[in-house]
Design goal:
By secondary structure, the chain is an alpha+beta fold. About 40% of the residues lie in helices and about 20% in strands. The strands form five sheets. The chain has a five-stranded mixed sheet with strand order 4-3-5-15-6, covered by helices on one side. Belongs to the LysR transcriptional regulatory family.
Length: about 300
Amino acid sequence: MDRLNAMRVFTRIVELGGFAKAADSLQMPRASVTILIKQLEAHLGVQLLQRTTRQISLTLDGAAYYPRCVRLLADLEETEAVFSAARHNPKGLLRVDMPAGIGRLIVIPALPQFTARYPLIELEISLNDRTVDLIREGVDCVLRGGSPLDDSLVARPLVMLDQVTCASPDYLQRHGVPECPADLQGHQMVEYFSATTGSRFGLEFVIDGQVQAVNLPRQVSVNSADGYMAACEAGYGLVQAPYYHVARQLSEGRLCEVLRDAPPPGMPLTALYPPHRQLSRRVRVFVDWLVELCAQPGQHFYRSDSGS
C-alpha cells in the first residue's frame, strides 16, 4: 500500500463527502479508492470513516487523523517544491471559486497572463454568488466581496472596490432623480438576498463620514448579482453595485448613476484559502497574481472621477 496516496485519498473523501466524488476528483477507479481506505484502516488498526447508504462521516479516530494528514501532505508538497522545478514552475490542479461578475469581467479576460506564466497549472474555476465551503467542497482558493466572516481561513486583501448607486433612465423618468438621500421618499429599490443565508440587503450611504442604512419599498428581490442588475435595467428601482459591474451599462446609457455626493461604502475584495494550503505553491502564485492584477491600471475597480 502506498500510504501517502492512501492519505491523499482519505483527505479528499473527507473534503468532498464521498468515495465516488473523491475518485472522480483524483481520476481513480472507485474500486481503487475503496481498497486503499480499507488497507489504510487495516494498517492503522482503526476505523476512520463511517459509511451509510446516504453519507460518509468521520469516526473519532478519523477526526483526529485528518488534520495530521493535511499538515503532512502540505509539508511534503512544499518540501518537494523546494528541491524541484515545481518551485519555479508549479504544476497540478488548482480549484478556485469567485463571484460570477468578477470572474466574467475581470479575472478570466486577464487569465492568459497567468497561464502563460504558469503553463503547468490546470485551473478549475467555479463562478457563482453563493458562499462555498472550501474544505467540504475541495476548493483551494476563493475570491469574496465584503468583509471576510470566517476567521479559520487565511485572508489576503486584494482591492477596495468603489460602489455606485444606479437606476435605469426609465425609472428616473418615472420617479425623479434624487439629489440626496433625503429625496428618496417615494422611491423603491431592487433588493438583494443571499442564496446561502437568506440575509437581505438594502442601501447604504456614506454621509459625513458615517454609514447610514436606508431601506426602501421593493417589488422585486433577487439572489444573484446578474439578476440584481437585470432588475435594475428593467426599471424596478435603485441598486448599489461595485463600479466594475456597471461600468459598461453606465457608459452605454443603460444605467445612470445617482447620489454621487453620498456614495455607498467601498467593498473589500479578498482572496481566502484554508491554512493547510498556505504553503501550496499553486495557491501562492495564483494569489500573488491576483494582487498584481488588481494593481494594474485600467481595471474598472474605481469610478473614473474617484481619484483612487
